[in-house]
Specification:
alpha+beta, two-stranded antiparallel sheet, 9% strand, five-stranded mixed beta sheet, globular
Length: 358
């Protein structure tokens, strides 16, 4: 069950809705299975994905966690570097032959085991947040056909190749479901018109650019097509798992929002429990009690946020110890050193030196 009370949950979700989109995108995550697919694209077009992942601070072992989440900001940097190194016109459009049928994780499995293509699209609409916590998907009838639309926020922050890999991968997954590409009438994209080659590889006759959101208009006859992988017994299992993950994700996302608020306020002075309660429009005691239900506390969340940021600063920045201490919200640098001994069993300088050697 979601850890907030009904009133607390409404207040928190209202606050979340008002968070600036740039912050949300910067803090957003995607499913590890989707991230693994996109990194496979980089590898199979001939780039050194291990070196590129290391350069942006991505631990590739995290990609094997079926419940793992990968920061989108890291993947954006990865695709920007890969695009700069690639000699291809667009590496994001080279991905259909590299598709792993499980790249959508449990969302993909709920789609594969249901009865027809329309129901598969409805599953994507319901569980899309498990793929990308900033993704909003909806379906609506249009002259007998069905338009599937998706919105991701400020598209300017999304590398072109990253998004094209997503579009091409989704269409290729539809081919896995149906045995052939679905009949479509129109594609709307949020980007400006690419060159003629890139446009041609999307195999759409009617493409509209610079639209407010992405959408694909599927033909009505395609919607009723049965899926080759339909399995009613497996479908019940997949849906139960997806529903449990969705319920858990909504709860965790509330904690993640608290982590985000703490992270954004660390520099110079850490957010206090009282400050956080005011931001969420709840009392300190209510916030404490609701965090206890989630088997965590404000102190634990603050400590973990500092630890994770300390790792990033020590391994991937040139900041000195005083600057890092200030960025983590410590009043005294000695407090930072004590915390480092608790986190890593060594001083921050020793931690930086040890891992830079590795």
């Amino acid at each position: 069950a979601c850890w907030l009370s009904a009133t607390g949950k409404r207040r928190l979700m209202t606050k979340m809705a008002k968070t600036p989109s740039t912050n949300a995108i910067e803090k957003g995550t995607i499913a590890a299975s989707v991230a693994r697919y996109k990194i496979d694209v980089i590898r199979k077009v001939g780039l050194d994905e291990k070196r590129l992942c290391y350069s942006v601070g991505l631990n590739m072992a995290e990609l094997d966690d079926p419940n793992g989440r990968i920061p989108k900001a890291v993947l954006f940097r990865l695709f920007s570097l890969a695009s700069a190194e690639s000699k291809m016109i667009s590496l994001g459009l080279q991905c259909d032959e590299y598709l792993d049928a499980g790249f959508l994780g449990i969302v993909g499995y709920t789609m594969m085991s249901c009865s027809n293509f329309k129901q598969a699209l409805q599953r994507l609409e319901r569980y899309s947040v498990l793929l990308d916590d900033e993704l909003e998907v909806w379906a609506e009838r249009e002259e007998g056909n069905l338009r599937l639309s998706a919105r991701i926020g400020s598209v300017e922050r999304y590398p072109f190749d990253y998004m094209m890999a997503g579009i091409k991968g989704f269409l290729s997954f539809c081919k896995v479901l149906l045995g052939s590409y679905p009949i479509t009438h129109e594609l709307n994209v949020m980007y400006g018109r690419p060159n003629s080659y890139e446009e041609g590889t999307l195999f759409f006759k009617n493409i509209n650019f610079e639209m407010p959101f992405f959408s694909i208009l599927f033909d009505a006859d395609t919607l009723s097509k049965p899926l080759r992988s339909f399995n009613p017994n497996l479908d019940r299992v997949h849906v139960d798992i997806a529903e449990a993950m969705l319920e858990n994700f909504n709860s965790v996302k509330s904690v993640d929002y608290i982590r985000q608020l703490i992270s954004e306020s660390l520099s110079g002075r850490a957010l206090s429990l009282g400050d956080l309660a005011i931001r969420l429009s709840v009392s300190k005691r209510t916030l404490q009690r609701e965090l206890e239900v989630q088997e965590t506390s404000f102190k634990e969340i603050l400590d973990d946020v500092r630890k994770q940021q300390a790792k990033q600063y020590l391994l991937y920045s040139k900041k000195n110890m005083k600057e890092i201490s200030w960025s983590l919200g410590f009043v005294e640098i000695s407090s930072f050193y004590r915390a480092s001994h608790q986190w890593f069993g060594m001083t921050p300088k020793q931690y930086r030196f040890k891992h830079q050697e590795l």
